[in-house]
Write a structure and sequence with these properties.
Rossmann fold, elongated, 15% strand, disordered C terminus, 473 residues, alpha/beta, single chain, 6-stranded parallel beta sheet
């Protein structure tokens, strides 16, 4: 099935043509027709499956047809009243969604606005006097604007919760209840989209959305990584993490990549270290404790300048970064589900991606939970830290310690090879061996005479007798 068979507005076709999109993904083929029919949907599908366009395309088409059937004249009364609201857990994901809708609106001539941290203190006030069609927002900022009556959702027909399970896990429940309560329940259609399911989301649907009949799309590939992701496990101790990361960046890291850690303190410390070690490489940092404007600046720089981003799980969910080649889990995440989301940043849209995991002795429990989450993907399984095996491999890989004499001999041999242009002959090697084992530099006693011991030697004195010698050169 082609996009042309499920979407009909000319402006949407124009967007698809420009971006060379002809065939929908499996989830898009399932969800878009039902959404166009006015159904509320609850979608759980793996990362990189095309969930964003599964709601962005039908929303823009529906709004365009509404606009043509019921033209709206901008007035003071309908200012600050979006017709569609898209909720994202982080400003980074919100910014990404904003760019997707803006690219569609370039053809559909729609007004898109973003309400998130780092957008300036006057954003809410300006939006209250603005006329726009789609609002992309983080729950906290939108809920605050609604309480201050700076925005109104009574005209909102489509409410989307992207990464719905994370919205709840991050503590936005009260904000989500307030946002949904501010809409006209008889008018709004709800869309829930996530890569993983959770008990909190199921409970939320049964209570807050009790009156909504969702079309469920729980794809069989949930909680899975794409098959184009190649995983490598590196077994280290905690003390060796920085050294291994440095060696990896120096010898292995090619192209744009993300290093995931668990704590914001680790982000700052590792970024400082890597900037010192690699002044020519663009190293960026991102975590939730940063000021919103700093987060925006750092993330925008990473997108523009490429390089390496050191981040907490703030960029693990829903983010699509062009040309992202690899992901390193400096720390394995506290929860298995975040391993799936982190690794899902690469290998998207059938491109090849690489995941490198630093596995330490303390990771045994999380390794077990991760393997349960990806149990059907043998190529991506983790192995617990085996100390005896690790020490054996480490000893085997350790370079042989050479004496100063041995090093000097190698240097002289290399120098001689450069001068003569040839390797040592076998007879020369034998002669060197003889010299090494003899107390006399160039000669050696005959076997018969060597077997006899001098009387003086027996007495502890020095022999003065003459010995017949043979030149063994």
């Amino acid at each position: 099935m082609s996009f042309e068979k499920i979407l009909s507005h000319s402006s949407i076709h124009s967007f698809l043509t420009e971006n060379k999109l002809t065939k929908p993904t499996h989830i898009q083929e399932q969800v878009i027709p039902d959404f166009l029919k006015g159904k509320s949907v609850n979608v759980i599908a793996k990362t990189g499956s095309g969930k964003t366009l599964a709601f962005a395309l039908p929303i823009c088409e529906l709004l365009k047809f509404d606009e043509e059937d019921f033209p709206v004249t901008p007035t003071k009364e309908n200012a600050g009243r979006p017709r569609a609201v898209i909720l994202a857990p982080t400003r980074e994901l919100g910014t990404q969604l904003f760019k997707v809708f803006k690219s569609i609106s370039h053809h559909a001539k729609m007004r898109i606005r973003l309400l998130a941290g780092g957008e300036g203190a006057k954003t809410n006030h300006l939006l209250s006097r603005d006329h726009f069609d789609v609002l992309i927002a983080t729950p906290g900022r939108l809920s605050s604007a609604l309480k201050k009556k700076e925005l109104n959702l009574k005209n909102t027909k489509y409410l989307i919760m992207d990464e719905a399970d994370q919205l709840l896990d991050m503590g936005f429940r009260k904000d989500l209840v307030n946002i949904y309560g501010s809409t006209d329940a008889s008018l709004v259609h709800v869309g829930l989209f996530s890569a993983t399911s959770s008990e909190s989301l199921s409970e939320f649907c049964k209570t807050v959305f009790a009156d909504i009949e969702f079309s469920e799309y729980n794809m069989g590939d949930k909680n899975k990584l794409t098959q184009s992701v190649r995983t490598f496990n590196i077994y280290v101790t905690d003390k060796e993490k920085n050294q291994m990361t440095e060696a990896f960046i120096k010898n292995q890291a090619k192209g744009r990549g993300i290093i995931f850690v668990n704590k914001h303190e680790t982000v700052d410390a590792l970024a400082l270290l890597m900037n010192e070690k690699f002044p020519k490489i663009k190293v960026h940092s991102l975590h939730g404790e940063m000021e919103a404007k700093d987060r925006k600046k750092n993330y925008d720089r990473f997108l523009k300048e490429s390089g390496i981003l050191i981040s907490t799980d703030i960029t693990a969910r829903g983010m699509h970064i062009d040309d992202l080649v690899w992901v390193m889990n400096y720390d394995l995440p506290f929860e298995a589900v975040y391993y799936i989301h982190r690794c899902g940043r690469v290998g998207r849209m059938q491109t090849e991606g690489f995941v490198y995991n630093l596995v330490t002795p303390k990771d045994a429990n999380i390794v077990m939970r991760i393997n349960e989450a990806i149990r059907n993907q043998t190529a991506m399984k983790l192995t617990s830290f085996d100390e005896s095996k690790f020490n054996a491999l480490k000893a085997k890989a350790a370079p042989k310690i050479k004496t100063k004499i041995e090093k000097k001999k190698e240097q002289l041999e290399e120098l001689k090879a450069k001068v003569t242009g040839k390797k040592k002959a076998k007879s020369e090697k034998k002669h060197l061996k003889t010299i090494k084992s003899s107390s006399t530099p160039r000669y050696k006693r005959t076997e018969k005479q060597s077997a006899k011991k001098s009387p003086a030697k027996k007495a502890g004195g020095r022999s003065t007798s003459n010995h017949k010698v043979t030149n063994r050169r």
